[in-house]
Amino acid sequence: MVTVVGSHDGDTPVVAVLSDASDFHREPGSSIMTELLSWASLICKHSGISTTALLLSAVDTDSLIAGVRRAATNLGAVYLAHINPARADAARVALADTVTVITDRQAQAVALVAATLRVLVGEGVALSAGRMVIVGGDRNPMVATLAVAAGIGEIDSWGRDDAHNFPLRTLNRRVAVIDLLGCVGPEPGDGAGSVRGHDEPARVISVDRMMTAVAASQLLAAAGTAGAALSVAEFLACAQLLAQIDHVDLTAPARPDAASLRIPSVSDFPPGTSSALSGGVVEGVFAGVTDVGPDDE
């Protein structure tokens, strides 16, 4: 069931997928609201939690925090997506006393480490003897944090600046390679600065949208139970659980038909967020609000 805030049956969404689009890279035929609706549908499907998609107009961290704080009055948790990582992390810390905040980078890290654990177990390698390299580790430092917490023996982080002195092919004798740059492949590179190696690593693990959505669902469900910010141990527990799941329905639910949704009116928004709503995007004001609830089946 898909509805717009103001037309639902009164149930308040527990989770909000929220963005200011500061880290949204648009592809042909896509839009930020379509993307948020897709994530809301995925999280709802895999967690059973009613989920809303919110688009904020925030020009900086302070306005983002203020907007989330206003929206969080009746929310159990917020999932920040497509927001500048530094801004999202600052908002997460600042809002710790207001609402539980999970970021897309955190969910991504859980999914990637879960996949790594599955590879190590599948190869019969003890965690303490595991060897992995994180390509582009600076893009998501939490991947290394969780890998260390998991007890993986050897963890290397590789970036493009390392290409000249340490070609990626010199690190290919690892059980697992997490690729955050999308640059690992079997084809030879075109020079000393190339990030491609001559030999493909044993197992290359890339960012997977569906598994990240499952990880996000686990984290949001855990956050709802804990009622507070999750610890590294709880993030690791989610990764370990996800690593043990043999079969997950990763088919994406049907996206809501945007054409069937009406434009929200001033009365649709929580008090304090609707005063400047005038059909356009205004700083600190919601540009769109949509709820996604569990199917009635």
Describe the structure.
This protein has 297 residues and is an alpha/beta fold. It has seven helices and ten strands. The chain has helices at residues 32-47, 61-71, 85-94, 104-122, 142-150, 209-226, 232-244, and strands at 2-3, 15-19, 51-56, 77-80, 100-103, 131-135, 154-158, 176-179, 204-206, 286-292. The protein has a six-stranded mixed β-sheet with strand order 1-10-3-2-4-5, sandwiched between helices. The protein has a four-stranded parallel β-sheet with strand order 7-6-8-9, with helices on one face. Strand 6, helix 5 (142-150) and strand 7 form a beta-alpha-beta unit. Helix 4 packs parallel to helix 5 (142-150), helix 4 crosses helix 6 (209-226) and helix 4 (104-122) crosses helix 7 (232-244). It starts with a strand and ends in a 5-residue tail after the last strand. Mean pLDDT is 74; it is low at 1-10, 186-201 and 251-291.
Sum this structure up briefly.
The chain is of the alpha/beta class.
